[in-house]
Amino acid sequence: MFSFIARAQQGITGRLTNAAGQPVAQAALILSAPDSTYLESAVSEDDGSFRLLSTARPYLLTVQHLAYETRTIADSRSDLGTIVLELKAQTLEEVVVRAERPIVRVQNGRLTFTPQGLTKSKILATAFDLLAETPGLKSTDGESIRLIAMDQTPTLLINGRPSTRDAAATLLYVKSLPADRVLRIEVAHTAPPEWNVKGAAVNIILKEGLSDRLTAQVQTQWDNKHANRFTQTASVMYTSGKFSADLLYRLSSGHEISRTNMYVRHAVGSDTTEIRNHTDYRSHTPATHDLY
Prior knowledge:
By secondary structure, this protein is mostly beta strands.
């Protein structure tokens, strides 16, 4: 009994390396319960070592790094030993080793990501692109942002304040926001009281004190599966000292086609019943205009 208690009080420790045995620093570690309840976050040290204080057992540990594949470990041990991470196909090694590398740290129970330097190695035009690369977050469809450990959609905030727009409009705004305007990104699995939102949240901190400038951006998207869907977004942003104003316009239009074939065969004793159903569905979305 004493031995078990002593091990539990040790928290969770380990060391991250790559396949060559080199330490992996600045990796985000997110600890959660088996039911995905968030427990704790940490960042690996320069020698690859990490330590989490939680005594919860069993647990899920998600390890995420810009240059390595995300790994999730289900375990109950206090000492995980050496964890080897697999390099991504498109390595960001030049970002990881430079002094200007992106910085990940834990502050007040939230992961803070400083993306400076990342945009020089990847084509990341918008704040949404940065969110998709932020440790602790993921975008599998290019249309939404979710937490990795909890697989939930967080509330998006700008400069610590909830948007007056609805969730869809806020996401659209983030997709139009130039990446070079982002100072840092904060990921909180449990939002602090001052953010005035419940549950998980992501806070995008914008740069201040920018010189007078007018920024414009146009984005066009065309999707084709069995039908065409067209979306065009234009944004204009003006900054002067502490004053800033954004204008966002979106035009969308498209067609949707779906087909369902169903065949069911029931056999009860010597009786057989067959059901066949064929359904074609077509719809057209008229041109819609959104102005924010």
